[in-house]
Amino acid sequence: MRPVLVALAVLALPACAGKLEKATRTQAAADFNCGADKLKIRGDEVYGKYHVAGCGQKGVYSAQCLMGDCSAQRLKGE
Fold this sequence. Notes:
Largest sheet: 4 strands, antiparallel
Radius of gyration: 14 Å
Order of helices and strands: HEEEE
Number of strands: 4
Strand order of the largest sheet: 1-2-3-4
Shape: globular
Oligomer: single chain
Number of helices: 1
């Protein structure tokens, strides 16, 4: 049973990563008052952490999904 759960989790990670990045892009666009298409997003080695730059601003975001609802918030001090 455990190998099946691990396999399912590995298959789900890429789908989740796309949702996390989308949530980060949406939040950063609002925070920066900048078009989402003008943002450059780079994933960090820490899962769910993203470095965002665009429109003369930059910030670090933490994104998460809980029961299919994904959100991101800017980390202060980074």
